[in-house]
Every structure is written in structure tokens, then in C-alpha cells.
Amino acid sequence: RGGGPGEVRWAHGLRVAADGRSYVADRENNRVQIVGHEGEFIEERTDFKKPMGVHIDNAGTVYVTDQVPRISILTLDGQLLARGRTFEQSHNVYTDSVGNIYGADVAHGRVQVFRKV
Length: 117
What we know:
This protein is mainly β. It contains no helices and 11 strands. β7 and β8 (80-85) form a beta hairpin.
């Protein structure tokens, strides 16, 4: 427990990439940490405000929701592809096989869907 590399204050979301690395939404430290399959710290991404949900689709695209509220879409290497405002208190995010994005909107007790166009 803590704020240093590999330490976590509040793990709010977790996803494992195909290469075995885990992406941890460390909400109270305003970051997503990436750890190896043995739990070793690899790196952190800090451009978030209380990240809550992390999802990695089959193509290796990373989706992170935070309390701005917004969604950030990144490559596995951390390159920001897109960012936009979303649903309030999005506690998790998923995608389907055609690219639609589903967000758990806890504030309103619903799932919001952003359809790929």
C-alpha cells in the first residue's frame, strides 16, 4: 500500500494484456500502473484523474475511464489515440467485437453504449 512504483492506494480496475502485463487503475494515485506477470513494476501512466475502469480489446487497444468524467483510448505503449468526455462515474468499460464501447454509469444505474460509426 502506498504511492511509490508498484505500490497501490486503491486498485479500482485491472486488466491483463495478451503479453501477460497487468494494467492496474490505481485510483487514489491518479495513475494506471503496468506490472509484469510476476508482479514486477514496469511503468506508470499518470495523465488520469482517479482512473476507475481499464479494458484492453482484442486488437490491444487500451480504454481507461476516470472521474473527469472521460474515456482515454491508448495504444499498449501509451500513445493517446483519442480522449473524450463520457458518462458520470464510469466504473468500468468494455468493447464488443465490432468496436462499440460500453460503460457502466454508476451515477445513473445504467450502461451507456457508444456505437462505432
